[in-house]
Amino acid sequence: MRPSHDDSRTAAQGGPVSPAPGEFPVPAPQPDGSYSVYPYQGLGPGRPAPAKRTVRSRAMIVSGALAVVLGAAAVLLPAQYVVESPGPTFNTLGSAGDSEIIEIEGRRSYPTKGELDLTTVYVSGGPSTNISIFQAVGGWANNDDVVYPTEFLYAPGTTSDEVDEENAAAMTSSQESAVAAALTQLDIPFTQELTVAAVVEGSPAEGVLQAGDTVTAVGDTLIDGIDSLRAVLNDGGGSAAEITVRRDGNEVTESVTPRQSDSGVYQLGIELATSFEFPFEVSIGAGMEQVGGPSAGMMFALGIVDRLTPEPLTGGRHFAGTGTIDAAGNVGPIGGIRQKLIGASDAGAEYFLAPADNCGEVVGHIPDGLEVVKVSTLDEAVQAVEKLAAGGSAADLPQCTP
């Protein structure tokens, strides 16, 4: 946040101007009975104060007071804007405070070198904090910042507690997905379960499946993740599917006929939550309690891959990046990438790994000295880091182009 400044001014007020001796002209009476207005006060003994001057003076005092009140309100009341600024970076191979950002127990890990920075955006305003109009104007004037109307980022009525809870949940989910993606990349087996979080009203599953059901099989196909569920439903071509779920400790089989969506895939009409069981413990994010959201997923996954690989992945080079990740290793777009590019450059990064779906915002906003490589999957990110660490050129890797 930037300190506000006060552009208000106070005017020196002088006393009434006294006329020179002998300069007391008799005010000329007007048709309405009032007197002409003079550029000074006091018309001499026995001379009445001009009525028009009194009315005008009162109007000026009232309007001046109103201007002061409105000006103070503009300065003191919070502006309905959000300012995004470049935030700090965190090396996923290093530590935050007294703790390593990635800790692995129950499996051998290896020394690393170089940096794999996750990047952040500092957000001022919105439900969590208030900003003044001067801070909003300062954001517009600063090329490193972006200013949005509050309602562009937050639904009306959203509270700061709701924002904090959502960001914390997204961070936890991204960490679990990062572990799953890293283990998938390294061919280390693990298990995952799909649990019905909610049943969509009017969907094929309504009245058949229940929130809390864990999907274990469709027909004879065991379900070990969202990809296997999607595949078996699409292979069925819309025919009735025998869904086996674990419900209240018992296995139950229900028949549901999937419905084809506008995109051509077959769906049951349920919202799913994924839980994982890994063969060893991976703890992520110690010392980063103030960082939330899902956008660090890819960099967490890269850090885990490096820690579980005998040879250092980076070759001692300085990488930064951003992007969501799912258990299958797909990299997704994020917000605030312009500020993250600046933050990475300020931290001394040589290379930046950007989600392919963010390329439209990357073009034209790359800081001098920073080379950007676009990636769509964790595998592409790993290959890019390995090639650059070995002395390859970023120009030979996928780029964000106009």
From TrEMBL:
Pfam families: Lon_C, PDZ_6. It catalyses: Hydrolysis of proteins in presence of ATP. Residues 1-41 are annotated as: Disordered. SMART domains: PDZ. The keyword Ribonucleoprotein does not apply. Residues 18-30 have a biased composition (Pro residues). PROSITE patterns: LON_PROTEOLYTIC. The active site is at S295, K340. Keywords: Hydrolase, Membrane, Protease, Serine protease, Transmembrane, Transmembrane helix. InterPro entries: Lon_proteolytic, Lon_Prtase, PDZ, PDZ_6, PDZ_sf, Ribosomal_Su5_D2-typ_SF, Ribsml_uS5_D2-typ_fold_subgr. Its EC number is 3.4.21.53. The chain crosses the membrane at residues 59-83. Residues 286-388 form the Lon proteolytic domain. Belongs to the peptidase S16 family. This is endopeptidase La.
